[in-house]
Amino acid sequence: MRHQKRTVKLNRNGSHRRAMIANMLKALVQHGQIETTVAKAKALRPHADKLITMAKKNTLASRRAAIAKMMVSYNKLSSKETRAAKEGNTSSYNADRFVERKLGELAERYGSRAGGYTRIVRKENRQGDSSPLCIIEYVQ
Description:
single chain, 140 residues, alpha+beta, CATH 3.90.1030.10, three-stranded antiparallel β-sheet, 5 helices
């Protein structure tokens, strides 16, 4: 029996599940909302709320824990790309470099809020396999 088991397995092994949650967290932080299935959104919600709580602490350890949770990877920049980045040209960056900044903005937005940072809005079923879709988003 699965009494008092918190992990939703989603028919995936552990490493695949962690990578999927990390990718969904990054996309949610970058775009503010993502469209996914209801089961994945319900599995993602506690991770997304805990991510904001970590960002609100604003300590070095909490920032590193948030980066580890999202599996942020920084691509190595060549010296030419580094000079361009210092001048303000950020076209050579991958999107992961901006996630940390966006997470800081979210932490400022929810500074006085005690919890409940995400919302799940149900949509119609997917046409191919009739699985229920929804939008998970950060509340305003």
